[in-house]
Amino acid sequence: MPIIVNLDVMLAKRKMQSKELAEKIDLSLANLSILKTGKAKAIRFSTLEAICKELDCQPGDILEFQQD
Question: What residue stretches are annotated with the HTH cro/C1-type domain (predicted)?
Answer without folding.
Answer: 13-62
